[in-house]
Amino acid sequence: MKSILIVEDDVNLGELVKFRLQQNDYSVIVVTDGMQMFEQLRQTKPDLIILDVMLPKIDGFKLCGLLKNYDPYKEIPIIMFTARSGEESRLMAKETGCDAYITKPFDNKILLDKIAELLKRSEITDVPAPPAAD
Fold this sequence. Notes:
Number of strands: 5
Structural class: alpha/beta
Helix content: 40-55%
Strand content: 15-25%
Oligomer: single chain
Radius of gyration: 15 Å
CATH topology: Rossmann fold
């Protein structure tokens, strides 16, 4: 079962997304800020992260940049999840290395399709190289 870490400060929205994902056979953990995210990452490495942009203390753009520049976590696909729909925010998300950008309110099917796409892509890149021929 694939695991997803949701970093969302709106507790109700986090639980709604968790419920939807669990209905689709994902294991889901929800945390409400960046510090909790790092605490959770020390315990387990998720297959994908859904990261809100507007979080207390440190925003999602900075968190995404930190994760994408740190070897143990840089390969984890990250979906930026935000109410910001402007081009400037999309560009900033891309610059920080996020893999997808979904705006709130979100379409459940779009979110599920993007998760499936990113997980499939990460499985392809995780395939070990064949041994060298002698």
